[in-house]
Structures are given as C-alpha cells and as structure tokens.
Amino acid sequence: MGYKVAVVGATGAVGREMLKTLAERNFPVGEVVALASGRSAGQQVSFGEDKVLTVQSLDKYDFRGTDLGLFSPGASVSAIHAPRAAEAGCVVIDNTSQFRMEPDVPLVVPEVNPQALKGFRKRRIIANPNCSTIQMVVALKPLHAIARIKRVVVSTYQSVSGAGKEGMDELFTQTRGTFVNDAVTPEQFTKPIAFNCIPHIDKFMDDGATKEEWKMAVETRKILDPDIAVFATCVRVPVFIGHAEAVHVEFEGPVSEAEAWKALRAAPGVVVLDHREDGGYVTQVDCAGEDAVYVSRLRRDPTVEHGLAFWCVADNLRKGAALNAVQIAEEMHRQGLLVREAA
What we know:
By secondary structure, this protein is of the alpha/beta class. Helix content is 29%, strand content 24%. It has two domains: 3-128 and 321-334, NAD(P)-binding Rossmann-like Domain (Rossmann fold, 3-Layer(aba) Sandwich), CATH 3.40.50; 132-315, Dihydrodipicolinate Reductase, domain 2.
C-alpha cells in the first residue's frame, strides 16, 4: 500500500513539477491530494499522464491520515500550515525559506547530507534548500571529499522561473513588447528583465548583500561544512528555466584538474560535460527538463594557491526544487522514516 501524499501549492510552477516528478519516478503513492489557496480550489492539475486532480482548499484540509506533505506555497503560508500538518502526524518537506536555518529542522540535499534526515522527528519538518545552493553543493561535495574546501566565490545567473510563473510571464511580455515598441514596466523585478541582467534577488541586507546571497552562504555551511566561507553575487538573467553558476573554489591543499574530474564523474547527481572546444559545455537551455547538475569549464585558478573554477547548470524547477524534495521523500522511504504518527 502506498503513501497518502499532499502537494501544497499544487497550482504553482514548483507544485506542478512536484506532481510531475512524483509520477515520473514512480514514488510509492497510494493517493495524491492537490492543495492550494481557497481561490484556486476547484481548478484541475495533472498527475502523471492520465490522472487529473481537483485542487482542494489548503485552509480546510485536515492532514490527519496524510503521510507526506510536499510544500511549496510561499514562506508565510508554510509558516502557518506546515506545523499544522506536522502536528497531525504528516511528514513535511518544505520548499520555502521558512524553516531552513532553524537548528532543529534538517536542511537536506540527498546526494550531500542524507544522514541529516535522522533529526527530522523533533519537528517532523525537513527543509528543501534554496535552488542556487542545491546545485552548487551537489558539485562541491565530491571535491570537498578529496581536498577540504576553504572558500567559495560564486556568481549566479538565475532564470526568471525562480520568481514563479509571474516572473516568466514578465519576461515573455517584456520581450514581445520590445519588438512592438510597447512600454516596458517592471512589476516582478526591479528593472526590465528582457535583454537585461539584474544583480538583485530578494531583499537587501544591512551589509549590502541580498538575502539570496546570504542564503547561499549560510545554507552551504549548514549542509556541507560550517567552516566553508562563501561569497556570492546573485544575478537574475533573461532565461526562462535553468540556473547557471560560475564557481571559484579555494582548497586547503593541492588538488589537480584530473583528480577533480575523476571525483565529479563518480559523484551521484553530477554529469561532467567538458570539452575545450566550441559548444563543449552545458548551458541553461540544455539542462531544462533534466535531473542532473551539469559541470563544465573545469580549470585551475592560478590566482590562489590551491584553486579550481568551474561552471555548473541545473534545472531550478527540478533539481533546484521539486526533484530534490521528491528525492528527500525517496531517501526517507529507503531509511524507513516515513512512518505515520497519530495526531
């Protein structure tokens, strides 16, 4: 008998991807419930190739008897309903930023720190990391295992789907408007996004960093190693799906390109495609719809004593969100942790 699974935020881009990923990966589902806000109740969403679900109101849903909740409704909504679900005996995997840095909530990337899942029982909530953090730590993990990482400097090139359907709509509308001389009015972003790059994701903090940049630093330390220093510059770019990152890594000791290539090629979730020729690398367009984190342009960084640089891309709606959440559920199933508790 399969699990009863609720997908919260089922009408959003990530929620729809969660439903798609559950079906594609044949997660042991007995029943799937699609939940969203009251105004979305009654809409229909797809689950697999031949099943249609009618969306129910999250506010009215009783989580008793539900084994697993995959949440992606926005942080303020998760703050209310994720604890409510957990108290009803449901295991919550939350894709929002609400619980990530709380010390008694595991922050998990299954290829990197599956052992952290053991601590989920304190709250019955597991946090899914930020999309840009996920792909970076998947690539860093095998390198950290062969030569400890001291410092990471990363610049991201993040697609508009990271801002949801509204962000994708704005890029489409502004791109079309540019060609027909319509006025471009930013709504979702602080500047025009069509044919532009915006070095600003999330709110500014007191030190001049944005919250997205802060997330990459603190989440990497929580997931991978508390001693790694991370400096990030996060940029929104006019791409619909897929995040890219230029990552510069400083190690405590020497590591060669050959050693790094070997470690990355053997790492779960990583695909190395690195030919030093025209087109011998992976771009955001190439990775859309794919599950892996792709690494290209690996080379020595001569500006530091023990340095390497690489380029990595991943589909932010899949590995950066929905897929990672489902992989957490799969790992919990393997470890026998998805046991329903009475409310």
